[in-house]
């Protein structure tokens, strides 16, 4: 939250600086061209983001299968304990309960480890995508004469006229097709 406030304060300061330094006449004359990009949307719907998500899902399929097997073991042991509650000896029951507790701990550790590894892997892929996004944005800015392009997620209002997110997504898709990925 604090980061968002600092970013908003920075933007307000930037616009005030442009206005105070005599840029106001240029702004009204339409000489300054500003664009806004929603990187969150790009990381959700762009071709490279979708490809990265599929790649990550494929990588973590083995993890997921292992965790599902553990969950099935836990369920099986719980059902066995409930079903054979009265027919087993105290020692057998305690052994099964310890086994259930051990598998439950392993299951929780495996889930936690998978979440951490998944987050780390997603961050790696997203940072690579963001590098590409920034290059595409820079290219668009240079080719189309933008003076300023901001990456905003939580703006209160932005005109569709200055939102170039879809343009960036389209350029990324074209780049993806051209590279044959």
UniProtKB/TrEMBL annotation:
Pfam family, one: OmpH
GO molecular function (one): unfolded protein binding
InterPro entries named among the record's database cross-references: Chaperone_Skp, Skp_dom_sf
A biological-process GO annotation: protein stabilization
Keyword flag DNA damage: no
Annotated coiled-coil segments of the chain: 67-113
SMART domains: OmpH
Family, per entry: Belongs to the skp family.
Name of this protein: Outer membrane protein
């Amino acid at each position: 939250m604090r980061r968002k406030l600092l970013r908003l304060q920075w933007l307000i300061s930037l616009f005030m600086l442009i206005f105070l330094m005599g840029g106001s006449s240029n702004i009204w004359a339409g000489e300054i061209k500003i664009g806004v990009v929603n990187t969150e949307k790009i990381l959700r719907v762009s071709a490279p983001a979708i490809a990265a998500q599929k790649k990550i899902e494929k990588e973590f399929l083995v993890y997921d299968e292992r965790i599902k097997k553990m969950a099935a073991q836990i369920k099986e042991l719980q059902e066995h304990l409930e079903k054979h509650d009265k027919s087993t000896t105290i020692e057998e029951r305690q052994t099964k309960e310890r086994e259930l507790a051990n598998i439950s701990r392993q299951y929780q550790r495996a889930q936690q480890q998978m979440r951490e590894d998944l987050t780390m892997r997603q961050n790696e892929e997203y940072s690579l995508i963001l590098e590409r996004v920034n290059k595409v944005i820079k290219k668009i800015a240079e080719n189309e004469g933008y003076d300023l392009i901001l990456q905003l997620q939580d703006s209160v209002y932005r005109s569709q006229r200055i939102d170039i997110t879809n343009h960036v997504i389209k350029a990324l898709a074209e780049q993806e097709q051209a590279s044959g990925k």
